[in-house]
């Protein structure tokens, strides 16, 4: 883990001359934990250089990613492959399209039929379970049931896809120091941001009501 | 891998259809782009929206990037043009002072972005900054020097090795250990 993070750190600085560079990049692009680590390393550098604004927007990259996800991917590789493909397109349309259509239709039919069967089995199993009253019998019945689409993930000691701390704010509302800082800040902010400076909010509210 | 080679590698991946590679470019340049856009637009939310738009435009235009210039120069030009167009579309004037895109690499975050909407977030930003600087203070001298030379002075690993009179491998290790130590302090603030 440390070795991997060290490589990540070197990649961030454009300094990793090992052959593993490519595989590391592949890993980073598909491992959210490594992405978060990289983002925190980047954040550390930004803070040190005073490159961060008054308010850091940690979800900026996520917002861009969400927008990009809706756009089509660039397809230089596809274009290359297409240009190398010597099969004429008319031949594809003529010979393979009907077969492909049939294959898709058959697959959909199989999926639909199996879903219906699964749901039926699931419903029957639920009904059976409802009729059994003693708890031990329920456990046995449950153990004998196939795991179907009603299965839920249960908490274990170590989740399968453990996610390390990431880049979302953890607001420590119970921290007294933070509460005091926030209250002071809000009072100052309120005083300086409204045109009726120096008047406490309660007075303004009373004044407003009086005019009604 | 030399300077900017990582960018070129990532750009090539994006051009071949790998969207995830673009995430890393966003991550690398988001603050610089936001800082550049903030020279034109002072409202925090508006500035971030325009910076986001600039990245999306860059993604769309990625096929046209041929590598004749550095990726970040190309990206900064897109960001500056997006900001100018945004102001023009709202019949607002561009700043009286000239914003030189070539200097964007050196723009700091102190550009006067105004955000009155989220004081809690501003406080937490302040806490992040304090945590990072406090963690740096606690570092042993060799780690502190290595990370400072890299992040603030922008020296290469080779130059740092020369300055600190140690092998490049040691520099790499010290920079990582410094980051890791700061990261350990930073992580409790994030989830």
What does this entry look like structurally?
The complex is a heterodimer of chains A (212) and B (191). Chain A is extended. Chain A is 66% helix and 0% strand. Residues 81-92, 145-161 and 204-212 of chain A have low confidence and may be disordered. Chain A starts with a helix and ends with a helix. Chain A is mainly alpha-helical. With 191 residues, chain B is an all-alpha fold. Chain B has 2 domains: 1-91, Rna Polymerase Sigma Factor, Chain: A; 96-191, Arc Repressor Mutant, subunit A (Orthogonal Bundle). Chain B contains 8 helices and no strands. In chain B, helix 2 (19-38) crosses helix 3 (44-60) and helix 3 (44-60) crosses helix 4 (71-89). Chain B is globular, with a radius of gyration of 19 Å.
Question: Descriptors for this entry?
Answer:
heterodimer, A: mainly alpha, disordered C terminus, B: 191 residues, mainly alpha, 0% strand
- Cα shape of chain B: globular
Oligomerization status of the protein chains:
heterodimer
Largest interface: A-B, 69 and 81 residues
Strand content of the residues of chain B, in percent?
under 5%
Number of helices of chain B: 8
Quick recap:
The complex is a heterodimer of chains A (212) and B (191). Chain A is 66% helix and 0% strand.
Secondary-structure map:
The complex is a heterodimer of chains A (212) and B (191).
Chain A: H1 2-12, H2 21-30, H3 32-48, H4 60-69, H5 76-84, H6 89-131, H7 135-144, H8 176-193, H9 201-211
Helix pairs in contact in A: 1-3, 2-3
Chain B: H1 5-15, H2 19-38, H3 44-60, H4 71-89, H5 119-138, H6 141-151, H7 157-164, H8 168-186
Helix pairs in contact in B: 1-2, 2-3, 2-4, 3-4, 5-8, 6-8, 7-8
């Amino acid at each position: 883990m440390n070795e991997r993070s060290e490589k990540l750190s070197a990649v961030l600085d454009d300094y990793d001359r090992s052959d593993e560079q490519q595989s590391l990049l592949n890993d980073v692009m598909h491992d959210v934990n490594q992405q978060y680590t990289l983002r925190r390393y980047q954040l550390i550098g930004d803070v040190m250089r005073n490159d961060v604004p008054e308010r850091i927007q940690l979800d900026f990259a996520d917002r861009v990613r969400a927008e990009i996800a809706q756009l089509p991917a660039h397809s230089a590789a596809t274009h290359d492959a297409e240009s190398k493909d010597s099969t004429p397109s008319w031949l594809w349309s003529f010979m393979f399209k009907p077969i492909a259509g049939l294959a898709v239709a058959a697959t959909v039919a199989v999926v639909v039929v199996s879903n219906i069967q699964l749901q039926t089995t699931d419903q029957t199993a639920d009904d059976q379970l409802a009729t059994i009253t003693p708890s031990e019998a329920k456990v046995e019945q449950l153990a004998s049931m196939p795991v179907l689409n009603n299965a839920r993930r249960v908490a274990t000691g170590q989740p399968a896809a453990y996610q390390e701390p990431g880049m979302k704010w953890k607001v420590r509302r119970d921290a007294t120091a933070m509460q005091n800082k926030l209250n002071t800040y809000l009072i100052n902010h309120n005083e300086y941001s409204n045109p009726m400076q120096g008047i406490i909010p309660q007075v303004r509210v009373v004044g407003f009501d009086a005019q009604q | 891998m030399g300077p900017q080679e990582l960018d070129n590698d990532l750009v090539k991946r994006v051009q071949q259809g790998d969207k995830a590679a673009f995430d890393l470019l966003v991550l690398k340049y988001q603050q610089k782009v936001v800082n550049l856009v903030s020279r034109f637009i002072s409202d925090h939310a508006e500035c971030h929206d325009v910076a986001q738009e600039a990245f999306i435009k860059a993604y769309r235009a990625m096929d046209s990037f041929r590598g004749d210039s550095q990726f970040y120069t190309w990206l900064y030009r897109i960001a500056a043009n997006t900001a100018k167009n945004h102001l023009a579309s709202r019949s607002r004037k561009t700043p009286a002072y000239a914003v030189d895109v070539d200097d964007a690499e050196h723009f700091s975050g102190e550009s006067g972005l105004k955000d009155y909407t989220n004081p809690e977030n501003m406080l937490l930003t302040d806490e992040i900054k304090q945590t990072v600087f406090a963690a740096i203070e606690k570092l042993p001298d060799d780690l502190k020097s290595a990370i400072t030379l890299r992040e603030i002075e922008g020296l290469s690993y080779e130059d740092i090795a020369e300055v600190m009179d140690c092998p490049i491998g040691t520099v790499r290790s010290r920079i990582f250990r410094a980051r890791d130590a700061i990261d350990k302090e930073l992580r409790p603030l994030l989830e």
